[in-house]
């Protein structure tokens, strides 16, 4: 992170990136000195409430983050930045977005955890939009004009007040990752697994294994597992209780509990009881050593698609094993009325034998299976996400396997899963059946 004194002293001339977090209440006009070169501006964690008209001089700016500031209105001056395509206003206090305030070139817009009651109809002009994060607002509907956002691939509208999902949403040709939990339109009675309650005093936390937006996962020793026919070494996830970019932690927890057992899902052993801070949490099986992330989260450049280290190669055998495992897990979830919402390589762990474990239910939605039309639409959206994963695997296929006959069939399956007309995509059960035959 740079400092305001460095900026004012002219020490940052020529910089492409600038990050300032120093309790700013006004936009530092000295930033305009960098107009010829500045591409990424991060002013997260200040106390800004507006931007000056001079901001439009930042004609080379591509990415701008203003999260955790005091904005109540989306700054209209941003629309005058011709190259701006990624914008973040997470956890501000935005209530209103004026017509034509969103830059037309926007590909990735983050408005999570604000107080927005409606979107401008002009958002339909943002036809390059691929990723739209709106969880934790006060939206009651989506404007019909959004149907023109034909490149939209990831949409987060969890934890809003949406009463009805529009029909056009289910016909968007590229929509693959959708989160809709925590809205009136998705409330229904569903059967939950009767998970055992595990008293917090029985768990001895050890090292932290990972931390995400929704909670912290730690290795733990379960002191009384013998009575439960469970392992002594487990993983414990304690939820933070705050709205995330995907939705509400309680919705994630319910989806985890509803998922049940499957060889390609991380097993939930129980839910935490008697936590001293009254926090919710789950006890999960500890993933064995040797598993690694299949891919990395999307970058600024890739936007919606996972990234892979240079030199990544998958054998045909591993490709088939991973694809079948994830498709089987997804089929299992949809049979239970669960849309994962984040079917990605970065949420998949794989071992040396090609066995895949699918996790992270932060964007999951429990839906009503009795509404057959809606259930089909949601599953067909997620099938495209699987098609993207299969495409990634095939793009990194070992050269010596590229000419195998089965590869042509896998490519055809990928194309069918990514068909621009969602109704032409197969169900997961059919995908699993085809992959079993190919294996």
From TrEMBL:
It holds the Pfam family LRR_1. Keywords: ATP-binding, Kinase, Leucine-rich repeat, Nucleotide-binding, Repeat, Transferase. Coiled coil: none annotated. Residues 203-439 form the Protein kinase domain. GO terms for molecular function: ATP binding; protein kinase activity. One of its GO terms (cellular component) is cytoplasm. The lineage of its organism: Bacteria, Pseudomonadati, Bacteroidota, Cytophagia, Cytophagales. PANTHER family: PTHR48051, RAS SUPPRESSOR PROTEIN 1. PROSITE patterns: LRR (PS51450), PROTEIN_KINASE_ATP (PS00107), PROTEIN_KINASE_DOM (PS50011). ATP binds at residue 237. This is Protein kinase.
């Amino acid at each position: 992170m740079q400092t305001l004194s460095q900026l004012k002293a002219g020490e940052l001339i020529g910089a492409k990136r600038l990050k300032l977090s120093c309790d700013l209440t006004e936009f530092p006009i000295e930033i305009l000195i960098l107009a010829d070169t500045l591409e990424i501006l991060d002013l997260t964690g200040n106390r800004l409430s507006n931007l000056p008209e001079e901001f439009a001089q930042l004609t080379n700016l591509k990415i701008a983050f203003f999260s955790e500031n005091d904005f109540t209105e989306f700054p209209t001056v941003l629309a005058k930045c011709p190259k701006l395509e990624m914008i973040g206003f997470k956890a501000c206090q935005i209530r209103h977005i004026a017509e034509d305030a969103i830059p037309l070139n926007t590909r990735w817009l983050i408005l999570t955890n604000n107080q927005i009651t409606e979107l401008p109809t002009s958002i339909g002009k943002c036809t390059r939009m691929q990723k739209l994060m709106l969880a934790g607002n006060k939206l009651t509907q989506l404007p019909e004009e959004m149907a023109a956002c034909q490149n939209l691939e990831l949409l987060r509208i969890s934890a809003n007040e949406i009463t009805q999902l529009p029909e056009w949403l289910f016909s968007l040709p590229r929509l693959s990752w959708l989160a809709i939990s925590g809205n009136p339109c998705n409330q229904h009675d569903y059967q939950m697994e009767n998970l055992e309650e595990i008293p917090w005093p029985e768990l001895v936390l050890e090292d932290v294994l990972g931390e995400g937006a929704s909670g912290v996962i730690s290795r733990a020793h379960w002191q009384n597992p013998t009575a439960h026919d469970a392992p002594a070494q487990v993983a414990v996830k304690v939820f933070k209780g705050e709205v995330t970019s995907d939705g509400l932690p309680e919705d994630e927890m319910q989806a985890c509990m509803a998922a049940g057992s499957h060889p390609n899902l991380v097993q939930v052993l129980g839910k935490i009881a008697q936590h001293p801070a009254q926090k919710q949490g789950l006890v999960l099986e500890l993933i064995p050593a040797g598993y690694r992330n299949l891919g990395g989260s999307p970058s600024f450049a890739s936007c919606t698609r996972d990234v892979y280290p240079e030199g990544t190669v998958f054998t045909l055998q591993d490709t088939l094993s991973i694809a079948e495992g994830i498709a089987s897990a997804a089929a299992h979830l949809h049979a239970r009325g669960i849309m994962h919402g984040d079917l990605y390589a970065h949420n998949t762990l794989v071992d040396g034998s090609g066995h895949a474990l699918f996790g992270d239910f932060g964007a999951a939605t429990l839906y009503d299976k009795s509404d057959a039309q809606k259930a089909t639409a949601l599953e067909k959206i997620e099938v495209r996400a699987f098609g993207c994963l299969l495409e990634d695997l095939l793009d990194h296929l070992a050269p010596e396997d590229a000419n195998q006959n089965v590869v042509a069939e896998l490519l055809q399956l990928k194309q069918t899963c990514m068909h621009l007309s969602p109704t032409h995509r197969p169900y997961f059960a059919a995908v699993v059946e085809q992959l079993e035959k190919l294996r």
